[in-house]
Amino acid sequence: MKRLWTPAWIARHVAMVVLVVGFLGLGWWQVTRAAEGNSLSFGYAIEWPVFAGFVVFVWWRELRHALRASREERADPAPPAAAGSEPAVAAPAVRRPVRVSRVPAVPVGGADDGELAAYNRYLSWLNANPGAKPGDYPG
């Protein structure tokens, strides 16, 4: 719980309270305007408390996330490195490899479009000559 009393978290707590009180106050103001005959204010009278609820929801999620992160840090300390051993290499963060098809695409219907073929030759030339500019293309 000590983690939730840092200056950043105190600012978050204060911001949450100010926003919720402000949004609920604006909702009450819209209720009084709606009671005076302003029919559009009925929608706003519902909208402001929803905003307040959203602020509480986001604050609660951030609070749980911070507590869960601190609990995981305490539960899983880093293993001590043995003297003279190589430093441990962290596992990559990517869980699934990205699979890319290396097979050239076949034109739809089997027909080869002349402009498409010329463009593909141009792209192949650019790929084969990485330092070249597009204006250097001989074709």
From TrEMBL:
Ranges annotated as biased composition (Low complexity): 81-93
Ranges where the record places region Disordered: 71-93
This protein's UniProt keywords: Membrane, Transmembrane, Transmembrane helix
Transmembrane segments: 9-29, 41-60
Protein name as annotated: DNA-binding transcriptional regulator of glucitol operon
The organism's taxonomic lineage, starting at the top: Bacteria, Bacillati, Actinomycetota, Actinomycetes, Micromonosporales
